[in-house]
């Protein structure tokens, strides 16, 4: 378990980490997300005593990192795949780590086999590709068979097989009851790997919740429904007190009603449906919505005339959580649909 309490770090006038308090618990993969410059790397460095906090504290299973006698037996970490002596072979790099932490020499061969580097154990690491360096860094994190593991961008440089391997490795470690804390900008991988999320922006905690709850709170969920009997479907929905909005492609969108309820309602009135599908945002969309107001580095229009995408208003995220219309102009869409419905009934 990793416990942060009031953790802050200031570099001159820059407050990189601002009063962070959260707990990384065992038995699950916890994703650590935030825009560039949010303070993720600084936070992870302070966890390992590589940077001293300005205030606050970090405890590793109840102890400060400096109090750990053989730290690699308690916590293993990959923060920088190139943080190794390029003149040493993969085997000797791990052997030095093992000897400094009282780890049996036999464990070096075990972890090299585990990460798929046995065939290059006697080669110097300076000739390794980024992906091979990542595997060697992961081997170093696993060397002490620790109960806590931290990975910063662990899939960088890995091929598809390697990405699949590290994803399953992290899941299996968590399934063994270990604490797994991973930072990544690849939202698709986080969505497949993490069960819990800690999200920061501009050094401050923005979310500490489950993956499912994070997406639910920071995105719009609705049901797409279509029928060849469009007008009758609208009548049935309206008689049931359900408001539907017509999308640009002609489908109806219904908020706040389960797909099963809509399906049963259509069956009751013998309505043919061509589509009935729940829609929910991806992790990336939910993340962008929450952190839009905390992005430090924005892209602007380029010389080629291609404009950068406009940022999502930060207040929209709060609207989602409070049940308000999910985006600017959405309320007007509801009003237009109601007016169109009235006009159709009057034959206009």
TrEMBL record:
Residue numbers spanned by region Disordered: 314-348
PROSITE patterns attached to this UniProt entry: ABC_TRANSPORTER_2
The keyword Cytoplasm is annotated on this UniProt entry: no
Compositional bias annotation for Low complexity: 314-329
Superkingdom classification of source: Bacteria
Gene3D superfamilies with a match to the protein in the record: P-loop containing nucleotide triphosphate hydrolases
Keyword ATP-binding in record: yes
Keywords for this protein: ATP-binding, Nucleotide-binding, Transport
A Pfam family per the record: ABC_tran
SMART domains: AAA
InterPro entries: AAA+_ATPase, ABC_transporter-like_ATP-bd, P-loop_NTPase
Start and end residues of each ABC transporter domain: 2-227
Similarity comment text for this entry: Belongs to the ABC transporter superfamily.
PANTHER family: ABC TRANSPORTER, ATP-BINDING PROTEIN (PTHR43335:SF4)
Name by which UniProt lists this protein: ABC transporter domain-containing protein
Source organism phylogeny: Bacteria, Bacillati, Actinomycetota, Actinomycetes, Kitasatosporales
């Amino acid at each position: 378990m990793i416990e942060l309490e009031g953790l802050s770090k200031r570099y001159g006038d820059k407050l990189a980490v601002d009063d962070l308090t959260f707990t990384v618990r065992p038995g699950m993969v916890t994703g650590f997300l935030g825009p560039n410059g949010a303070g993720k790397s600084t936070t992870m460095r302070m966890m390992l005593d590589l940077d001293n906090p300005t205030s606050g504290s970090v405890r590793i299973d109840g102890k400060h990192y400096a109090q750990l006698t053989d730290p690699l037996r308690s916590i293993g970490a990959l923060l920088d795949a190139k943080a190794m002596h390029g003149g040493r072979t993969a085997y000797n790099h791990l052997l030095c780590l093992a000897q400094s932490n009282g780890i049996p020499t036999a464990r070096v061969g075990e972890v090299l086999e585990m990460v798929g580097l046995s065939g290059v154990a006697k080669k110097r690491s300076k000739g390794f590709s980024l992906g091979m360096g990542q595997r060697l860094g992961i081997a170093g994190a696993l060397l002490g068979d620790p109960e806590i593991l931290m990975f910063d961008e662990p899939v960088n440089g890995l091929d598809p097989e390697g990405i699949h391997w590290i994803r399953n490795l992290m899941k299996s470690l968590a399934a063994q009851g270990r604490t797994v804390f991973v930072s990544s900008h690849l939202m698709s991988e986080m969505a497949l790997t993490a069960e819990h999320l800690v999200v920061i922006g501009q050094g401050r905690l923005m979310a500490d919740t489950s993956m499912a709850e994070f997406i639910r709170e920071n995105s719009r969920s609705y049901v797409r429904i279509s029928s060849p009997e469009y007008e009758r479907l609208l009548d049935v929905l309206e008689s049931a007190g359900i408001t539907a909005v017509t999308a640009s492609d002609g489908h109806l969108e219904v908020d706040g009603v389960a797909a099963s309820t809509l399906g049963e309602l259509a069956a009751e009135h013998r309505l043919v449906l061509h589509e009935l599908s729940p829609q929910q945002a991806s992790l990336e969309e939910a993340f962008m919505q929450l952190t839009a107001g905390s992005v430090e580095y924005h892209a602007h229009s380029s010389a080629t005339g291609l404009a950068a995408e406009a940022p999502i208003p930060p207040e929209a995220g709060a609207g989602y959580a409070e049940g308000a219309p999910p985006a600017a102009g959405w309320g007007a869409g509801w009003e237009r649909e109601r007016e169109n419905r009235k006009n159709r009934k009057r034959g206009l």
